[in-house]
Amino acid sequence: MQYDSIVIGSGLSGLTCALLLARSGQRVLVLEQHAQPAPVVRGFSRGGIYFDSGFHYAGGLGDGGAFQPLFRHLGLDRKLQLFPFAEQGFDRLRLSTTGETFALPVGFENLKTALKKRFPGAAYGIGRYIDEIEQKWCRFPYLDLDVDIADFSIESVHGESLTSRLQEFSAYPELQGVLSMHSLLYGIDPVDASSTLNAQVAGSYYHSVHGISGGGRALVNALLELLIQAGGEVRCQAQVVGLRTAAGAVAGVCLANGEVIFANNVVASLNPTLLPELLPQGVLRPAYLKRLKNLRQTSSAYVFFGKANRAVESLHRSNLFVQPRPGTFSPGLDLPLEQRGFYLAAAEQGVAREQKGVIGIVPAAYAEVARFSAGGKGRTCGYLEKKQQLAERLQRMFAASCPELAEMEFLELSTPLTLRDYSLAPDGAMYGVGRYIGQHNPHPATRLPGLFLSGQAIAAPGLLGAVVAAYLTCGSMLGHGLLRGEIKKCR
User: Fold this and answer.
1) Is 463 helix (H, G, I), strand (E, B) or coil?
2) What are the angstrom distances between the C-alpha of 225 and each of 28, 213, 236?
3) Within the chain, how many helices (H) and strands (E) appear?
4) What is the dihedral of CA 196, 202, 203, 207, to 10 degrees?
5) Residue pair 267/28 in contact by the 8 Å Cβ criterion
6) Which of 487, 489, 394, 449 is nearest to 144 (CA)?
7) d(C-alpha 324, C-alpha 425), whole Å
8) How buried is 485 (Cβ within 10 angstroms: 0-12 exposed, 13-18 middle, 19+ buried)?
9) CA atoms within 13 A on the CB side of 192
10) Which of 59, 186, 289, 439 has the greatest number of beta carbons closer than 10 A?
11) What is the rounded distance in angstroms from the CA atom of residue 76 to the CA atom of residue 142?
């Protein structure tokens, strides 16, 4: 069987790549080693509750938002129903030491007004900083169609760290916490993250915040429907164990069952550190392969899934970040579990206000559970007891800062081992390869003709980052001018 392109991995970036290529007239096959496409994003059900485990909200989809044209170009606007998050507090930061809560309103001007009112002594700096984010967040390929794609990664690699940028607010540690809280959503300590990366992530939410009715499951199903309509194919339980080459170029892939599938192009939407193991010796330079293997991953996490004994009104179309102490928001992996910050969200934001499902995300290190790995998805004795102990500690943490969760029922807990198994990211990295200052993440096109990369490591984390990465990859294959021209018609 001969294909024009094979896409390895059916996450958001992989499915988006496949859709764009199929619409260009290519014969496209997506290969996924798990039993269902996009296992991380699609979510799951426990105790009669659907948990939207891999997608919570998206920024930049409001009127005039830079993400809107891409959404329209893909056809997702016709398949999905969006709903806005709370205008006066789409995200809130609570200090566990005092219980004081800061609500972030939607809109750059609204945010400036709220922060200046709370921190009048920093008013001038606040105005300048928020204006800077408004200008920066969408100065990104395919969000801004005039950005020079060849140089898109330079500022995020060499720019000023978020910690350094927020030093001007050192007299206002609570303000530093508010302005760095979204670092929890890309898994890099503000000391190591550029202010540009933070602007890309936080700025999209400052602009506008929406959820998707049906959550990640609806998003995945919409992409699959569009892909099938465009003539693309998806095969699950198809593990790629190697790439085939011929005449110095990609020729196809080898599956674990011994099958060989031929293709002119292969898009690897997996964690780039896994790519060297799939390549025949000598097809790419050793220095490049070493760089891929040494890419730094983001932090991992414990993800708690529970059921409250009553509706959690404070999480209706709003998320809560809890910080143990004022100052720049650090993952705190060197601290005991109870002293780390965390993030709480409703299990499915699009349902009625009385829904009781709660998701809690707490940064974690792989080393904390590594001893329970028994190869593959196996676990050693004591893992279930460890999970139960962790769940009880997390419940106490949540209840201490959020009394409304005092009687929450524990349903499930994922650990760095779980995340490793489903995302295949080394050490269960929550967001895969991070965009660290000084780290040159790979570009979509490799030096092996026909081999391309996609995924969060290429662009940025989250739905927006995954989609932009897919456009960067497909633009490298089809021509950036072609895709940009099509997107301009969707503005």
Assistant:
1) helix
2) 14, 16, 16
3) 16, 19
4) 170
5) no
6) 487
7) 28
8) exposed
9) 15
10) 59
11) 16
CA dihedral 99, 57, 481, 262 (to 10 degrees): 120
**Residue 268: what residue type?**
A
Q: How far apart are CA 92 and CA 181, in angstroms?
A: 9
Question: What is the spatial distance between Cα 13 and Cα 2, in angstroms, rounded to a whole number?
Answer: 23
Looking at residue 295, the DSSP 8-state letter turns out to be P
Structure tokens of 69?
């044209």
Write the single-letter amino acid at 185. Answer: L
CA atoms within 13 A on the CB side of 13: 32
Per residue of the chain (491 residues), give pLDDT as tens: 799 999 999 999 999 999 999 999 999 999 999 999 999 899 899 988 999 888 889 999 999 999 999 999 999 999 999 999 999 999 999 998 888 999 999 999 999 999 999 999 999 999 999 999 999 999 988 999 988 776 555 455 668 999 999 999 999 999 999 999 999 999 999 999 999 999 999 999 999 999 999 999 999 999 999 999 999 999 999 999 999 999 999 999 999 999 999 999 999 999 999 999 999 999 999 999 999 999 999 999 999 999 998 888 889 999 999 999 999 999 999 999 999 999 999 997 766 666 789 999 999 999 999 999 998 889 999 999 999 999 999 999 999 988 889 889 999 999 999 999 998 999 999 999 999 999 999 999 999 999 999 999 998 899 999 999 999 999 999 999 999 999 999 98
Sequence-ordered alpha helix ranges (H) in 168-249: 173-180, 195-207, 215-229
Rounded CA separation 230/213 (Å): 24
SS3 content of the chain, % helix, strand, coil (to 5): 40, 20, 40
The CA-atom distances, in angstroms, between 477 and each of 32, 161, 235, 409 are 21, 33, 23, 49
Classify the phi-psi angles of 282: left when phi > 0, otherwise alpha if psi is within -120 to 50, otherwise beta. Answer: left
Coil vs helix vs strand at 486:
helix
